[in-house]
Specification:
23 helices, binds 2-acetamido-2-deoxy-beta-D-glucopyranose, single chain
Length: 459
């Protein structure tokens, strides 16, 4: 049974379970987060009767309203998803509801709540694909629903499906109740299958990306040969495969030293560098840069290779490439972080052999000198024209990091000193406001100090 054809009209979620099961890969907890409620023939009959007796509804009897673009009557006791148009029809005296026409309700996923019961409906297809299921669960989590009493599951006895369909659901639910490792195995073989369509493969990568955020899952992907598979896919002919393979790699590599080592051995660094150096759509560059950063961070060996393979030149060209402006801050931040990483390691006073080894490894990574040779003195301050405080903050701290070597270039830059003076006035004002509100070490004061530092050093 494919996840993609899960035919769940409704997910009933016990949120007290969801809160702790989320992010953990225990099968039991995952299973308990999803509850399909049983219905007997007897109950179906009973509910119909009750629906006619408007004022005598059991609060646990719930019926979900499926909104469309047309006005439909809302029956008493029906749970209405959030974000709908609701009106009173004066002719009939009944409430009616429909979907807003303004794009609200994107994806057709709607959250509903009635009393202590919550759920998700898909108004587009009345069923969930794997992707929609994931989104639905995330949305549920965002709603931040709490306090459902312990006996809730026992109390909930009715559902909205005939028995036959319900049994089919349970079959489908078994898929959801696989362990993460089983899911990863299935996704990898789906991706690797020669009979899978492009759409299937991309869907498999999309789902894989979600699972490999967890350290154990990423290591499982590695153990079954999935990292090599992803690395090979970086030069697939289909752009969307290249993009999503890079995305999976980036998430798997992130903060996961074992995976970082295996991936560099599988040749991932070179292949990512090729993606960054060659003509590729922005979406691919973005994911490749993400994977590249995940590979390099806290991995001095990869940083050494990066320098040896000419990675800094590649980043410099990408930084200046037309249409790639949105990547500039990410590139600069990656370089800044790598320089700082080394600095911080070297500043730690620690005599242990492990620390000595670390320092030794970082000694071989000399990023700053080639950065100074390769025009980064000029490239970085260009970003200071941004109106975004966060961006400016990153640019200012990078400029500060390089200033002792870049002083001449900074001084010669047209308009830089007037730009710095302008920023100073702006942050003086904002810092004063901040202090007025009782903040001592405020954000804008920090920015002001940064600007002042640079101005002072430039003399
Ligand atoms: C992918 O398929 C090939 C050929 O069928 C097989 O040799 C390889 O082991 C598979 N890789 C993974 C990771 O399943
Ligand atoms: C991808 O690169 C490998 C060598 O790294 C090559 O053998 C393979 O044919 C390439 N695949 C495609 C689709 O170009």
């Amino acid at each position: 049974m494919e996840l993609g054809c899960l035919n769940l009209i409704l997910l009933l979620i016990s949120v007290h379970c969801l809160n702790y099961s989320w992010g953990e890969n225990s099968q039991q907890q995952r299973a308990s987060a999803l509850t399909v409620v049983e219905q007997t023939e007897e109950n179906i009959g009973k509910r119909k009767e009750e629906a006619t007796v408007e004022d005598d509804l059991d609060p646990e009897d719930i019926e979900v309203f499926y909104p469309t673009n047309k006005w439909q009557e809302v029956k008493p006791g029906q749970a209405i998803p959030a974000g709908l148009h609701v009106r009173l029809n004066l002719e009939t005296g009944k409430n009616e509801a429909k979907i807003l026409d303004d794009g609200n309700g994107k994806d057709g996923l709607k959250y509903w709540k009635q009393g202590s019961r919550h759920g998700m409906v898909n108004t587009d297809s009345k069923s969930f694909t794997a992707e929609e299921l994931k989104k639905a669960l995330k949305l549920m989590k965002q709603e931040g629903i709490t306090d459902i009493d312990e006996g809730h599951e026992e109390k909930v006895r009715k559902t909205f499906r005939p028995i036959k369909e319900l049994m089919e659901d349970f079959e489908a639910m078994n898929v959801v109740m696989e362990t993460d490792m089983e899911i990863i195995n299935r996704l990898v073989s789906k991706f690797n299958s020669t009979s899978a369509t492009l759409e299937n493969k991309v869907a498999a990568l999309f789902d894989l990306e979600y699972y490999v955020h967890q350290v154990d899952n990423a290591q499982h992907l590695m153990a079954i040969g999935g990292l090599q598979l992803m690395t090979n896919a970086l030069n697939a002919t289909e752009p969307c495969i290249r993009e999503n393979a890079a995305f999976v790699l980036g998430s798997a590599l992130s903060g996961n030293p074992k995976v970082q080592i295996e991936a560099i051995e599988a040749g991932a660094l070179q292949k990512l560098l090729i993606l960054l150096a060659t003509d590729q759509p922005l979406a691919i560059k973005k994911k490749a840069l993400f994977a590249f950063s995940s590979m390099l961070r806290h991995f001095p060996f990869a940083q050494q290779q990066f320098l040896k393979l000419g990675g800094l030149q590649v980043l410099g060209q990408l930084f200046q490439a037309k249409g790639m402006e949105s990547l500039r801050i990410r590139i600069m931040t990656l370089l800044y972080d790598m320089v700082m990483e080394k600095k911080l390691i070297q500043e730690v006073q620690d005599g242990s052999a492990q620390h000595q080894e670390k320092c030794h490894q970082y000694e071989k990574v000399n990023l700053l000198p080639p950065m100074l040779e390769q025009d980064w003195c000029i490239l970085v301050p260009k970003l200071l024209t941004s109106t975004d405080h966060d961006t400016r903050e990153k640019v200012l701290r990078t400029m500060n990091l390089m200033i002792s070597s870049c002083k001449n270039e900074y001084q010669a830059m047209q308009g830089l000193s007037s730009l710095l003076n302008m920023l100073r006035s702006e942050y003086e004002e904002l810092a004063a406001e901040e202090q007025g509100e009782g903040e001592q070490d405020g954000y804008f004061l920090g920015l002001l100090n940064s600007v002042n530092d640079i101005i002072k050093k430039l003399g």
